């Protein structure tokens, strides 16, 4: 029995979302945003994913024609229906479950958070106040509020266009465990408001030398609204292995184990799973640094180099797959590094399928990815998607 590997390259959109005008970065609608298209304009070399059909998918999604080789894989452009351009919406829908509710986002105002929420955070933190209380990039707010945090010991609370409540605190001045406890304590209140995630953003450093976020980020996410692909596979008695943020995004529902680390480490984990995952199993991976290190930081050059790193590493892994295995590379939303602001961009995403021969799959829905993985594994699909295999 074959295995399935579902690999999300976080934020690698290909433009063309039909509802991009409903989504914004500041006052500017996302119409015309195209993560891969704009990176390609600046120059990027991706021979492995080009063979899988990446440039054809880009062309199909947004009309950008960069030529490229005749694909040897199957390829599609996927369109999202959930009314959110965030990570949980994208992943849940790829896993067969569109989001049935409107996420709560905080206004881009000063203050951004309601007073009763601030009071609850202060009580849980044991502090006389909070810092921040506005929309911001997570690195910018450390420059702006880090020194005051060191003086007062108050947590830095901020948000973005995403449905998130983020708390940054110094691992030593405030304490890492205390920060995690605080986030866990207030998470039920935020989830009840339909805020998707409370995110702990620990950092180290000093006002003199600057502050740097550490790898101890932790997301406290609202549960998926109904069973996802992970549950379908798990409930059929098959192992489900997570790599990277997948465990957090699905609140570990239907997931047997998770391996974490930076993207370079995650690539090693993926290689190990390709070597040792059981017949009939699902391995579900997320590579987040496209989004967190380059998309939100609006770093076109860095994004291009990370894509090239991923492409070369993927090229080394593909020959290790067994006959009958399926590997899909896709994405959860866009984050055009050439765009206004620092938020995600509403875009279509590529679906590159290795293991079923060369095929143009055309336009598909995010939910079709889940249906296809279930189809490949021979487990019942409970979502609205249709298999494209
Ligand atoms: O700027 P940072 O803190 O990286 O925030 C980014 O990460 C958060 C969650 O993915 C989003 O809110 C996005 O704005
Ligand atoms: Mn994402
Ligand atoms: Mn993001």
Describe the structure.
Mn(2+) 2 binds at residues 291, 296, 344. Its cofactor is Mn(2+). The protein has helices at 35-42, 47-52, 54-62, 87-94, 115-125, 138-152, 171-192, 229-235, 246-249, 263-276, 289-295, 300-317, 366-377; strands at 4-9, 24-25, 28-29, 74-79, 131-135, 156-159, 164-170, 197-206, 210-213, 218-221, 240-243, 257-259, 282-287, 326-330, 349-354, 359-365. By secondary structure, it is an alpha/beta fold. The protein has two domains: 4-100 and 225-377, Alkaline Phosphatase, subunit A (3-Layer(aba) Sandwich), CATH 3.40.720; 115-221, 2-Layer Sandwich (Alpha-Beta Plaits). It has an eight-stranded mixed beta sheet, sandwiched between helices. Strands 5, 6, 7, 8, 9 and 10 form a six-stranded mixed beta sheet that branches. A two-stranded antiparallel ribbon has the order 2-3. The chain is globular and about 60 Å long. It starts with a strand and ends in a 12-residue tail after the last helix. The model has no long low-confidence stretch (mean pLDDT 97). The structure holds 1-O-phosphono-alpha-D-ribofuranose and manganese (II) ion (2 copies). 1-O-phosphono-alpha-D-ribofuranose is lined by residues 87, 137-138, 160, 162, 164, 166, 199, 292, 296, 343.
């Amino acid at each position: 029995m074959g295995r399935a590997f579902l690999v999300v390259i976080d934020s690698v959109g290909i433009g063309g979302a039909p509802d991009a005008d409903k989504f914004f970065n500041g006052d500017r609608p996302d119409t015309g945003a195209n993560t891969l298209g704009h990176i390609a304009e600046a120059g990027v070399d991706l021979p492995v994913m080009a063979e899988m059909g990446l440039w054809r998918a880009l062309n199909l999604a947004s009309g950008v024609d960069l030529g490229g080789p005749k694909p040897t894989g199957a390829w599609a452009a996927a369109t999202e229906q959930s009314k959110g351009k965030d990570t949980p919406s994208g992943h849940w829908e790829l896993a067969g479950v569109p989001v049935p509710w409107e996420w709560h986002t905080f206004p881009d105002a000063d203050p951004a958070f309601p007073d009763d929420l601030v009071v609850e955070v202060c009580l849980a933190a044991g502090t006389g106040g909070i810092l921040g209380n506005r929309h911001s990039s997570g690195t910018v707010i450390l420059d702006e509020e880090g020194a005051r945090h060191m003086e007062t010991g108050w947590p830095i609370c901020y948000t973005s266009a995403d449905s998130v409540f983020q708390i940054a605190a110094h691992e030593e001045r405030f304490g890492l465990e205390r920060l995690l406890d605080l986030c866990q304590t207030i998470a039920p209140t935020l989830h009840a408001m339909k805020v998707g995630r409370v995110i702990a953003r620990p950092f180290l450093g000093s006002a003199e030398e600057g502050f740097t976020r550490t790898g101890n980020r932790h997301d406290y996410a609202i549960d998926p609204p109904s069973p996802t692909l992970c549950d379908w596979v798990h409930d059929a008695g098959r192992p489900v292995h997570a790599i990277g943020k997948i465990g957090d995004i699905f609140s570990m529902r239907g997931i047997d184990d998770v391996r974490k680390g930076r993207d370079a480490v995650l690539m090693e984990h993926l290689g190990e799973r390709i070597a040792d995952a059981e017949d009939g199993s699902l391995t579900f991976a997320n590579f987040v640094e496209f989004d967190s290190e380059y998309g939100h930081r609006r770093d076109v050059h860095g994004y291009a180099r990370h894509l090239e790193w991923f492409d070369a590493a993927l090229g080394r892994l593909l020959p290790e797959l067994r006959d009958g295995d399926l590997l899909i590379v896709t994405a959860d939303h866009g984050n055009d590094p050439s765009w206004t602001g620092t938020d995600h961009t509403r875009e279509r995403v590529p679906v590159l399928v290795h293991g079923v021969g060369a095929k143009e799959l055309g336009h598909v829905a995010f939910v079709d990815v889940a249906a296809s993985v279930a189809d490949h594994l021979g487990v019942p699909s409970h979502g609205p998607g249709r298999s494209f295999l």
